[in-house]
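User: Predict the complex.
Assistant: Input components as received:
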Amino acid sequence: MTHIQSRPNLAPDAHAGAYRYDAFDKTFVRERVAQFRGQVERRLSGALTEEEFKPLRLMNGVYLQLHAYMLRIAIPYGVLRSPQLRQLAMIGRRWDKGYGHFTTRQNIQFNWPALKDIPDMLDALAEVDMHAIQTSGNCIRNVTADHYCGAAADEIVDPRVYAEILRQWSTLHPEFTFLPRKFKIAISGSPQDRAAVQVHDIGLIATRNRDGAVGFTVYVGGGQGRSPFLAVKARDFVPEAELIGYLEAVLRTYNQLGRRDNIYKARIKVTVHEMGAEAFLNLVEEEYARLPRDRFRLDPAIVAAIESHFAPPPFEALPARSAALEAARAADPAFARWLRSNTHPHRQPGYAIAVVSLKPVGGIPGDATSDQMEALADLADRFSFGEVRVSHEQNLVLAHVRQDDLHALWQGLEAEGLGTANLNLVSDIIACPGLDYCALANARSIPIAQRISERFGDLDRQHEIGELKIKISGCINACGHHHVGHIGILGVDKKGEEFFQILLGGESASPAAALGEITGPGFSADGVVDAVETLVSTYLALRRPGERFIDTLNRTGHGPFKESIHAAA
Amino acid sequence: MPLLKNGTVVEDRFVAVTDDDPLPDGVDVLVPLERWRTLHDALPPGRRYGVRLKSHQLVGEIAPDLGTLALVALELPKFRDGRAFSGARELRERYHWQGEIRAVGHIIPDQYLMLTRVGVDTVEVPAERLTDAWRRALGEFSIAYQAAQDDAPTLSLLRRHLRAGEPS
């Protein structure tokens, strides 16, 4: 007879749903850091020209921004273990200004490192099995996924398993490291797309056929930027075993035919658009038909081995309804408000998914201080198996919280300024770094986000307004996803002055994905905040019971909304 | 121009001939695609032939001729132009061609290992850029996540998970 023993030495993140490096992965990352040290030395000695060094540093996540270098660190499909989050906090404190910025590609970036320190920062990352590989450059970037993976009640297939397989497949891929342009892959495993798959170069929706076998609906050729396109469906169902082979065919076709004469026309979306989707996809199918299938066949045993890294944590058997939660909800209206907006149904009875807003009223979307990261790592250890996810909407997720613990978690978050109850509401804004940091920007975006957030600072009012996604970019490169905001804001430069165009009707989630349309002339920085408020008032006047902003907009058309902001101008 | 194979300089037996030069007698020649098209119906015997492809000229253009070719040189006009990587793999994987694949043009040492992994045999390097970095580049990574052209025909990157079973 054995009995369950307490295991005091088990690390708090022992059951985090994250891929654990083996000796192979660790060796690889160490060798990659050593290679980058050598590249920095060769640049300093003049053996590499700046032109030659640039793509190499970019493929290690090092950008030159407006005021300083920026280091973008990969968080594969947004999943972090608590020791990794603590190391990011340390890095922010030691080599940056005590904070970091979580991005729309589920990564984190530090905006103030010195170039000479970057190899040491990469060493510090390697200590916790992290790196900055392929967070930039014309290669396959960090694969992103649904941030509710492995927890959402509606999930059909866990996308982490395949995102990890794609991470390994794409890492320093010998054929696809010098593509015409960057290449982004996103994967979702639920009918409700939470990974914005149709605005990616390749979007995958993992699903099951009638026999229960896993496969992928494949979308190709989406993207935002200066010429936005929604991806077109390439295949309804690529069987699991054929996933890698099919992606090889897409990438090889693009690598050979993508334009290299004009950086603005080099993404696969332009190739697909200019050739026509049918012609491009026919070439992909021809390429795929002649690929050696066996060579690229994804063995079910390999999938099972990767899957073992993402085994469900040891959930307790709990009743679906928590009496403690109900008591706290009834007693504390502010907590009840947070529950309403910032928690999501979990597949396991008695558990919930909790979303930590990085959008405090008047704050910088996506920023977290080192202190906050450490506090969050502790809360993750206490309440969510030592695991934290980054969402593409620049928030953080604790995926497996006992409903009994939600009140204590929220109190812990509130103490750190992380308890804002605004998920999917008007102040849950995506914004790019804009002219405050970025060398490409034409206008500021962070201050606009801050002012809108302050204008709607009353959280009860935000809850009354309901779901409304505002996305702000400081230039046409669209890092702030303005094309898919319900209200999109695009900063432009007009004779040295900032102006802001408003787009309406965008949506990031497939199958409802849509690109917003520009409403009319731009606004000043003051004017755009007023215009957003006017749009909200218009919605409130027109909405029918149960309608979200986007629903009313889609029902009435853009006319009344456009008139409301441009008639007054 | 120096030619590297396995990290060391080897003799280049091919003489590069432009579109207009007369073919020199008795030596192996490397000709541009346009010149090759004027030759390949009536090849003077007694030498080996190679074709040099610009980056926009895909290897499918010479597929019917591969049986008579000893060398295909793939040009990178800028090192960022990675079409040659796909070209080399197509020569090996699609056409099962065994001849010499040479990378020419603007290439940096940091690409050397990947070039060899897609099937490139030799790389042309200007004498002034011939440093130890080339030899070192071949040893910078002891492992790779993908199968190379000379590896076993499997997804080598993930096979290790079958051996390991459990994460270490």
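Chain A is about 35% helix and 15% strand.
Let me know if you want any component modeled separately.
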